[in-house]
Amino acid sequence: MTAEEDRKFFDTFMLVLGALVVISIGIFILANSMAARTQEVHIKEDPAFQQRNVGRIRPVGQVAVAGADNSEIRDPGGPRPALAAAPAAAAQPAADLTGEDVYKVACTACHGAGIAGAPKTGAVAAWEPRLAQGMDTLVTHAIEGFQGEAGYMPPRGGLSSLTDEQVRDAVQYMVDQLPN
Prior knowledge:
Order of helices and strands: HHHHHHEEH
Distance between the termini: 75 Å
Number of domains: 2
Number of strands: 2
Helix content: 40-55%
Strand order of the largest sheet: 1-2
Shape: flat
CATH topology of the largest domain: Cytochrome Bc1 Complex, Chain D, domain 2
Number of helices: 7
Structural class: mainly alpha
């Protein structure tokens, strides 16, 4: 084959390919146009569809001020219980848990697999730089949370009901898991 025959073949191939692309786009536009005039109209007119949309866009909540007349607050989704006059109770502390229990409940999700930069339990290389900062720093980071280069430690391992002592026990449990 000569260069001229190659060029002719290439030009014909590109012409056929271009025609197929134009036809495909035309079919796509035609199908969408027909669907918009038929199926979509019926779906949008369906009362169940309209009710689901109203439910999705209704307000999630409204502000009620303690000691003020809140009778005008209405929930478009239906009746609501009476507003409580007393503020919500503070989070109750977690039950009396050992360091191992706290580790299993709050810590193992990240420290068991090394997720989000958490040093894996028992991985000496990952724990050495942290241990060099001291146990008090480790506990402070566990209680208050910490944003480091490797990742993020949520305050109290994401379980806000843990006491400082329970968090300290969990950190000590993880440190105790390191091989000597």
